[in-house]
Amino acid sequence: MNILVIKEGGINKAFTPRRISYGVGVERTFLYNSPRIEKLVVTRHGKVRRAKLNYLRDRQGKATKVKEKTNY
Predict the structure, then answer these.
(1) The model's pTM
(2) Contacts of the segment 47-56: beta carbons below 8 A, 24+ positions apart
(3) For residue 36, how many C-alpha atoms fall within 13 Å in the half-sphere facing its CB?
(4) Alpha carbon distance 3, 58 (integer Å)
(5) Which of 10, 13, 15, 47 would you label with 33, given CA atoms 20 to 30 Å apart?
(6) How far apart, in whole angstroms, are the C-alpha atoms of residue 69 and residue 72?
(7) 71 vs 29, residue with greater confidence
(8) Residues 6 or more apart from 47 whose CB is under 8 A from it?
(9) Residue 12: what pLDDT?
């Protein structure tokens, strides 16, 4: 699952994950302060030079991999 967008905005901070389900790309926006979310765990940090990763929508499989950041 890739996080495409992180929208800053104080209490309205949100993120949009994307995954492929049954061959169809699915995106959903969640608020950080939503009562539905118990906790968020960051497993890896990616090395990217963009704020919004919308270009990953056109890619599939291993092409969606992002280089991992080594020091954070």
Answers:
(1) 0.74
(2) 51/6, 52/4, 52/5, 53/2, 53/3, 53/4, 53/5, 54/4, 54/5, 56/2, 56/4, 56/18
(3) 3
(4) 14
(5) 47
(6) 7
(7) 29
(8) 66, 67, 68, 69
(9) 92
